[in-house]
Write a structure and sequence with these properties.
By secondary structure, the chain is of the alpha/beta class. The chain has two domains: 70 residues, no CATH class; 199 residues, Rossmann fold (3-Layer(aba) Sandwich). Helix content is 54%, strand content 14%. The chain has a six-stranded parallel beta sheet, sandwiched between helices. The chain has a two-stranded antiparallel ribbon with strand order 1-2. Helix 11 runs parallel beside helix 13 and helix 12 runs antiparallel to helix 13. The protein binds adenosine-5'-diphosphate and magnesium ion. Adenosine-5'-diphosphate (ADP) binds next to helix 8. The site of magnesium ion (MG) has 5 residues, from helix 8.
Length: 313
């Protein structure tokens, strides 16, 4: 008696399972994407193949194929974050391969670009500055000129060629540093040219602090030899004759000799910067030294004034 019960139970479980299985299968085969795939491979896919691959088809349906379904890459809903499924016929069954989603592709590209732009002491928003969402504002011909030149630079520059950088000057908060960041991103994106952006006041302070230890030379080498150097906010630093002559002077001298493009941003125009470089110092010799630095800056860059409202709140 018990045996019969067991058998009946098993049988009913089996029928139940069979029923659920059929329902599930029908659900899967009703799915639009699955239907499309089966239609595309008509004649190639047999019903046995479908039966054998139902788990895969189920997995495929459960995964998102549209980045708009997720808020961002971090909250991607798929099994493998940043990857979306694709159905393929593989031998006698249907299989899934995973390929990077649109967001992941964009993110990886972005990472590569960011790696090219090393930066010392530069705020994150400047690094993210891009041409795509760059707001030119009104009455700012300087911005357009700077971009036109960045474009020309990206098209024409080959390592070793002698091409000037830009000296962007204008008052506080008009977007000079942001513009440098956007130019650096532009060069990285279009020409895979790497830039080093250095915030001058911090850099000089650090150089003074590490005076006497070996990191001074290491940092100097890195800054001197960077394929593209952007000296951000020159003139805002506390100048001493050591930083002016041994640090700034020697960086600029090296870059002139080696034809290495150098960009600047400053609150000062050339005349005011010269004054800053001479200030607090006395005597003819100091004036000469300041003038020598100015000659190098002028040799290395084209001055462009950036106007506009103060964007800092
Ligand atoms: P500056 O270097 O001239 O003092 P910043 O480049 O630091 O000014 O810009 C000031 C603020 O305005 C920053 O927070 C920057 O992110 C923002 N900003 C500047 N230019 C733009 C722009 N074109 N589009 C969007 N934000 C900008
Ligand atoms: Mg700035």
């Amino acid at each position: 008696m018990e045996k019969i019960n067991e058998t009946l139970k098993k049988l009913s479980m089996r029928t139940n399972f069979r029923k659920r299985y059929e329902e599930e299968k029908n659900e899967i085969l009703k799915n639009n994407e699955i239907r499309k795939f089966l239609l595309e491979h008509e004649g190639e896919i047999t019903s046995t193949m479908i039966d054998n691959s139902l788990m895969k088809l189920h997995e495929y349906i459960s995964q998102s194929k549209d980045c708009r379904n997720c808020a961002d890459l971090d909250s991607c809903m798929n099994i493998m974050k940043g990857y979306e499924p694709e159905l393929v016929v593989s031998g006698n069954s249907i299989d899934i391969t995973y390929r990077p989603c649109q967001r992941k592709v964009y993110y990886d590209e972005r990472k590569k670009t960011e790696k090219l732009i090393q930066s010392i002491y530069v705020p994150k928003d400047i690094l993210k500055a891009s041409i795509a969402d760059f707001d030119f504002g009104v009455n700012t011909p300087g911005r357009a000129m700077a971009f036109e030149y960045a474009d020309k630079f990206a098209r024409e520059y080959v390592p070793g060629a002698s091409m000037k950088g830009l000296y962007l000057f204008g008052s506080f908060g008009v977007g000079k540093s942001y513009l440098l960041g956007a130019i650096a991103n532009h060069l990285a994106e279009t020409k895979k040219i790497s830039s080093l952006i250095v915030y001058v006041p911090e850099f000089f302070r650090e150089m003074k602090q590490s005076l006497g230890d070996h990191t001074v030379n290491e940092k100097m080498e890195m800054v001197k030899k960077s394929p593209i150097l952007m000296l951000d906010d020159i003139g805002a630093e506390v100048m001493s004759s050591w930083t002016r002559d041994e640090i700034l002077g020697s960086i600029l001298q090296f870059r002139m000799q080696e034809n290495l493009p150098t960009f600047f941003s400053s609150n000062f125009d050339f005349e005011a910067l010269k004054h800053h470089l001479t200030y607090s110092q006395r005597g003819e010799e100091e004036k000469m030294k300041a003038a020598r630095i100015m000659e190098r800056i002028k040799y290395l860059s084209i001055p462009i004034r950036i106007d506009g409202p103060n964007r800092r709140h």
